[in-house]
Amino acid sequence: MALNHEQPDRCPLQASFTPEFAARLRADMQMEERDTHNPHGGGNTYALERALGEDMLLTSVGWANSYYLDSQPYVDEWSIGWSPQRYETPFGAGYYTEIVGHPLAEDSAIDSYEPPDPYRPELYADAEAMIRAFKNEYWIVGVIVTTIFETAWALRGLSQMLMDMALNPELAHRILDIPFCYHLAAARKLVEMGVDMIWTGDDVGAQHGMLISPAMWRTFLKPRMAKFVGELKAINPNVKVAYHSDGNVMPIIPELIEIGIDVLNPVQPMSMDPAALKAEFGDRLCFWGSIDVQHTLPFGSPADVRAEVLQRLRTIGKGGGLVLSPTHHVQLDTPLENFWAMVHTVVNTPYSTLK
Amino acid sequence: MTTNANLERVYEAVLCGDREAAVAATRAAVDDRLSAASILNQGLIRAMDEVGRRFENGDYFVPEMLISARAMQTALELLRPLLVDSDVKPAGKMVVGTVKGDLHDIGKNLVAMMIEGAGFEIIDLGADVAPEKFVSAVRDSGAQLVGLSALLTTTLPMMQRTIQAFADAGLRDQLKVIVAGAPVTTSFAAAIGTDSFAENASRAVTVAKSLVA
């Protein structure tokens, strides 16, 4: 209902976790170790999500599944090199996997590059089992993030990719087509299998403004995203499409709506004002996210978290149109009290009780 | 071609991010016996100043900034021996790096390039830089400025540990420390005892200039 611009009984909730936070949460909830929570990739049992009363379940196919693959350096099936980086928090140490090797760094590698095959049946086994088990009870989201631009920058290197877009558009188009074709094939397959929503996107926003100009977005990304959305809705006109970009993407929101995007994620509140977004676009666009992970969740108090959740329900969530979630996987630096403050406030605040 | 026209070509080439044209124009300006200092100030620095202004105005974004900075750096390489010969001193020396545990470096690279484009000497330590490495780089170079970068909330505490390492080494008083990165705010910067915080690469230039003034 929320994603049809209608007010449900309470605001729907979604949250995903870094592997280390998931382990801490499981321990706190005295859950079995056998459960797996992988924010990018397979093997999920969804025990955590279900125990928390979440309303959406996510299944991911595509290059983003290369995150968190190993605790040792590795090379994924795209030939992209990764290195786990250790960090410490008051709640223990964890690892982020970071991209360190770019197979298309040299121009000469581009023409002979062979991307992986998106038509392998095993890529969809998890999604199939999950849809079969949970379709009647949950809103099922097929995750195809890092759809075009982010995978391209991992292949080429971020700075080089950005310079290609400025200096050598023809080359940039060729590189962008590699992940685009792969992820479009994967998204089509998930829609055919019956997911309720596809979550697509690429980070094109920086903290205070766009990373690339709106003009450059129109040249390289908008036409591909329009084709992506169009093809999915041709398969199932009722499928929703959510678009993810971190940071501030204010200048392109009207055009995201124009090409058929239904939902904007993650609405980073330190970058864009959630209430202003609702006021300007709320009749045409739904929202998913809006709880700050840059300050409130890791460094605020439970009261701060509760106040932020209530503020969102009264503004960007008013009348529906919001799935509340943190703006990224909840990270290890988040106090459990803060996490629970978020969950309990959402679950225990029916819209009818809000003034 | 007049000498002014050569400087104008350097300026235009850097502004457009045309590396080949920037090098050719710099070479022509040198051949015309323009002083290295004037090519630096009237050509390269003036162009990067305009790049920063356009970024602030929302006319330039990261790709345009990157190609301009690259054109500037290539021209500067050509000019560097001449600057040394004519005893042109940098506006200041700055050590930059992304703190330990954090591999994200594009923000740090942009800041470094923009500050270099303002006539500073940059000692770039890269990403995932341990506090001790910052300390020895400052000691070896005699830099007056340090720029610390982080993208992750989990590596923000490493900024404070790095600043503490400068204090432990007895270097803190002679240093100005600037922090930057997506989760960094003015209040965080103040709380960990930095001298300044920059919201973006262009403002980092203004901050760097004010700290050595």
Give an overview of the whole structure:
The complex is a heterodimer of chains A (355) and B (213). Chain A has 355 residues and is of the alpha/beta class. Chain A is built from 13 helices and ten strands. Chain A has helices at 19-28, 47-51, 125-134, 149-156, 158-167, 169-193, 214-220, 222-235, 253-258, 274-281, 296-299, 302-314, 336-347; strands at 56-60, 74-75, 81-89, 92-101, 139-145, 197-201, 240-244, 263-265, 286-291, 322-326. Chain A has a seven-stranded parallel beta sheet. A three-stranded antiparallel beta sheet of chain A has the order 2-3-4, with no helix packed on it. In chain A, strand 2 (74-75) and strand 3 (81-89) form a beta hairpin. In chain A, helix 4 (149-156) packs across helix 6 (169-193) and helix 12 runs parallel beside helix 13. The radius of gyration of chain A is 20 Å and the shape is globular. Chain B has 213 residues and is α/β, with parallel strands linked by helices. Chain B folds into two domains: 3-85, Methyltransferase, Methionine Synthase (B12-binding Domains), Chain A, domain 1 (Orthogonal Bundle); 93-212, Rossmann fold (3-Layer(aba) Sandwich). A five-stranded parallel beta sheet of chain B has the order 2-1-3-4-5, with helices on both faces. In chain B, strand 4 (176-180), helix 8 and strand 5 (196-197) form a beta-alpha-beta unit. In chain B, helix 1 runs parallel beside helix 3 and helix 3 (36-57) packs antiparallel against helix 4. The radius of gyration of chain B is 18 Å and the shape is globular. The chains are: A alpha/beta (355), B alpha/beta (213). At the A-B interface, strand 3, strand 4 and helix 5 of A face helix 4 of B.
